[in-house]
Amino acid sequence: MERTYREFWRITWNSTAERGAGWDAEVRRVTGQELADQITSRAREQLAGGIRLYGAVLARVSSVQITGDHAALQECQDASRAGQADVASGKPRNVGVARNLVHATLSKGSDGVWRVDRVEFPGGEC
To answer: pTM of the prediction?
Structure first.
């Protein structure tokens, strides 16, 4: 389950401008349907608006609670080397923080695969 969560960030925090069917399939492999739709459409909107992601976020999982086919995960994410950049110039528009509290929920599908259903940023450092 934790591996899926880490894979979620690797796949969705994609700094390239490639947002084709292959990327969509990767997102859907680690993400529930509703969240996958939000992520893929938002990524395309950002690119159309001249914004792309840069860098990588580091997931630092601090707790996991699994109840049957559902899991609640908390982490203290390091996004201090990641953010949004201008597509044309490549110059960063912003940068993340080193200690960002993140709550996530995951569920195990009928295929036995864990997927991220929700990611929340409640605010504050961790």
So the answer is: 0.91
